[in-house]
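Comment thread on ticket #2218

A.B. wrote:
> Attaching the input chain for the structure job we discussed in standup.
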Amino acid sequence: MNPLEGHLRARIARQGPLSVEQFMEDALGHPEFGYYMTRDPFGGHGDFTTAPEVSQIFGELIGAWLASVWQAMGGPSPIQLIELGPGRGTLMADALRAVCGVRGLPDAIRVALVETSPVLRRRQEQTLRESGIGSIDWYNDVSQVPAGTSLIVANEFFDALPVRQYVAHRGNWVERRIDTDPNGGGLAFVLDHKPAKPHLPPPGVSPTRDGDILESSPAGLRCMHTIAARLAEFGGAGLVIDYGHATTAVGDTLQAVRGHRYARVLDAPGEQDLTVHVDFAQLARVAMEAGATVHGPVSQAAFLSRLGIDIRLQRLLANARDDDAAAGLVAGARRLIDAKQMGELFKVMAVAGPGVGEPAGFAG
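C.D. wrote:
> Ran it. Output below, let me know if you need it in another format.
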């Protein structure tokens, strides 16, 4: 039993079985034992790899997208460039490098990073130290970022926000919870058996077949409402990039990853990543209710292709130092858009305030 499991077992003993949401909150964000609080999980020596670590082209194209939106808005200054869950700072560094030649934009940018992990904050500071952007501030929550016109990026952020899970049982939804296993001494999934109302905007999904699981992320919906309301009031646009589904549907997508392999969800809490597939339909509904406009989602392959990933790849290949470097560039770009890798599973959705037309990457 690791320290976090001991904490969870004591919590269960005090208050009864935990919701999946409560379990994820502690497993990922416990201030002393939480997964993201204690390590840098990215890259080959970590547990998983994200798109910015796969290829520099990803962040560069995101930077180009941000610049195009800024120019379409008339070049407002100052403008806050907000990233939620910045990882190692790789995406932001690549995006800033891409916009450095856009007249007026580098001087207008005020970078705000939303990050709760002290370990990752230190890594982000190291990565961005030579970015040339004078103003970089960190916040624990997007609601803390000062008001103003904003460009927002959330890459693989919503998939790590806690969810609640509901199981169809005799025509009702009942909440799935986590208790101590009386047989094995570990943790186990149990059912509440009291009818529950899922935290879903209407119309939701009806419980039809016993055993079906429906997921909803109150934290994700609150975050999206905050983002969309901000954009609707002060202007700007944002990108949500994540793996998930375009329409609300039943299914258990909660998964654990450790050392680039899938693991049992309830094993070794705090020592492995936990994620879910993002429900873009729920996020879009909340964004529109907050007064923003929504574009997409479209596949990551379509989005990056429309932004010119092949053109950017050819320019980088022309300056590649050797054949190995060229092969790495090609492999990274293909991984981003290949249908069997990241191209179709990952979706991209834009959320925009007033005065922002259809942004690049979303036109057919």
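A.B. wrote:
> Thanks. Noting for the ticket: Residues 80 and 252 are 36 Å apart (CA to CA).
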